[in-house]
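Input sequence (254 aa), recorded before submission:
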Amino acid sequence: AAVAVLTLVTSCGGSGDAEGPSGDSAISTVTVSAASSLTDAFTELADDLMAEDPSLRIRLNFGSSGELAAQIREGAPADVAAFANEEAMADLTGEGLTDAPTVFAMNRLAMVTKPGNALGVDTLQDLSRVTAEGGTVALCATDAPCGKFADEVLQRAGVSLPPERVTRATNARSTLTAVSEGDADVAIVYVTDANSAVDSVELVEIPDPQNVVARYPIAMLSSSEVAGGAQVFIDRVLGAPGRQALERAGFGLP
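Predicted structure, token format:
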């Protein structure tokens, strides 16, 4: 039973009602497409909701916001979308694919190094030295919000990195893994991702004048066939339990 619940929480799948033991449509399955930086908070909220209501199943599909938006346009099953930037959501809303979104969280960027920070990375300018000495910097893909934000903070700091010393990952969690698993020396990720891996990376703050604030919107998909269940999840995110889970993960609140 534990394995089955884990699959439902973490996998991507269809939306709708599943037949209960008696053959009736007793179980509502809600698919949530969410930015990978929301993994810890949303998994906690989904687990709690399913424990409280056996008739509700939450499927969490994590990825970069740009990737998820493309999936939704192509018809991938989804009932709720929660992205790491407002632009991707605004495009879907303008196309009539979502209801009006609500901003529910905020995030910032940070650098992460291997534990001990042996390379002495204290500022964004130090990344130029790291790459000049043959080191590698991990950034998110250019079509992911965390990649766009990273490029912005580097530009603000006047830092230009040689492309051959930069590796790009599909989303923030994959970018973090590049450092924790030794494939890169430094990465720029969300503060929340850095907080989720304090045992395997060291966080280096980016000063406010050079940093950005990412605003996270959430909305129901217009095509959802389980609007009641979708709204239950959205209400949990916007309510006190959601705010508490987000704060524990390091998010700011609007």
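Checked by second reader. Residues 83 and 89 are 7 Å apart (CA to CA).
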